[in-house]
Specification:
four-stranded antiparallel β-sheet; 5% helix; single chain; 1 helix; Methylamine Dehydrogenase, Chain H
Length: 352
């Protein structure tokens, strides 16, 4: 992403983060501006295949890259989105790929051929998240207009459109969501500080609770899918989905006077490590004070490593399947590999 565009985006982020209310609703949210010409491929999301041989990179230049994590070679590029891609994720059998974008669409792709199978629209603003149901029959996507939509994967037919709330007075975004392990429920992270639980079969919101002080930006399952990890207000919370109790809270570093912007959250496959990212901004100078990546002991909450080296926001975050390395992907176009035994960076890939 070029620096001019990044400065504009940074000014918007600072405005949002310094305001108690950031309205983005069904009635008044507006589409993102067009992608600038010659935009750089800043990393927006990372996904690893089960065998660890393919690293999917969702990028700010509207492209999805298949990268060999061992060599850094780009094996394939999928094009079709007309603005930044936030998420690219495999179906459980890895035959399909789903993506979500600032261009107000989600898309389904054939992994073997790279063919785009369905374009999923109907959104008024950026589509922030996308995921397949565990049985791969449904794909869901959500965005800044507060809609959480479900489609039939085979036909591309829209099945349901779920709206948590419609109000001009609050942030209506649904920033993230996850399916339950059996696919019968969806947990959604909302801009109005809450987490919602939706019944997939009926489209009914069956539970909703205040989870964070401002917004809930990220939501992932824990390693055994018996709990949730939410991230918002640069605070991580761990939830028991049986009792709906808050089990743990982890807070990111805070510089006095800085505007804090949550980034990404990830948990290792063995459930022992949690990683989080954020940025600290000087609101007076529109300048970065810090780009933070923290690794925690998931059981004790002890901070194990504080990783630094990226210049801009780290929105791609994933552990390797053996939990040995943490991969961080940044708007600065780099992907770093961190050894979880030492906390040291062992390799850096740069996207061109």
């Amino acid at each position: 992403m070029n620096m001019f565009y990044r400065i504009i985006q940074l000014a918007i982020l600072i405005t949002l983060c310094s305001s108690p209310i950031a309205p983005q609703t069904l009635s008044d949210c507006e589409p993102s501006p067009p992608m600038p010409p010659n935009v750089k491929p800043g990393v927006a999301g990372l996904t690893l295949s089960r065998d660890g041989k393919i690293l999917l990179v969702a990028a700010g230049d509207g492209k999805i890259r298949f990268v060999d994590p061992n060599t850094g070679e780009v094996k394939r590029i999928l094009t079709g989105h007309t603005n930044a891609v936030y998420v690219a994720t495999f179906s459980s059998d890895e035959k399909l790929l789903a993506s979500s974008s600032r261009d107000r669409t989600a898309r389904i792709w054939n992994v073997a051929t790279g063919q785009e199978l369905h374009t999923l629209g109907g959104f008024r603003c950026s589509v922030k998240a996308v995921a397949f149901s565990p049985d791969n029959r449904i794909v869901a996507a959500s965005g800044n207009d507060g809609m959480l939509k479900l489609w039939d994967v085979k036909t591309g037919k829209e099945l349901r459109s779920l709206v948590h709330r419609d109000s001009t007075q609050i942030d209506m975004s649904t920033y993230a969501f996850v399916f339950s392990r059996d696919g019968k429920q969806i947990y959604a992270a909302n801009g109005d500080t809450t987490i919602s639980v939706w019944d997939v079969a009926t489209g009914r919101e069956i539970r909703n609770w205040k989870a964070h002080g401002n917004y809930v930006f990220r939501l992932i399952p824990n390693s055994n899918h018996r709990g949730l990890i939410s991230f918002g207000d640069v605070v991580v919370k761990v939830w028991d989905t049986t009792s709906w109790r808050e089990l743990q809270t982890l807070s990111m570093p805070r510089t006095p006077g800085a505007s804090l912007i949550s980034g990404a959250v990830a948990i290792s496959d063995d459930g022992k490590l949690i990683a989080t990212t954020d940025v600290e901004i000087d609101p007076k100078q529109n300048a970065y004070l810090a780009v933070n990546t923290i690794v925690w002991n998931a059981e004790t909450g002890e901070k194990l490593f504080s990783l630094s080296g990226h210049k801009f926001d780290v929105n791609g975050l994933i552990f390797t399947r053996d939990s040995r390395f943490l991969l961080t992907g940044s708007v600065d176009r780099t992907i770093k590999f961190w050894d979880m035994r030492t906390g040291q960076a062992t390799r850096t890939l740069t996207l061109n």
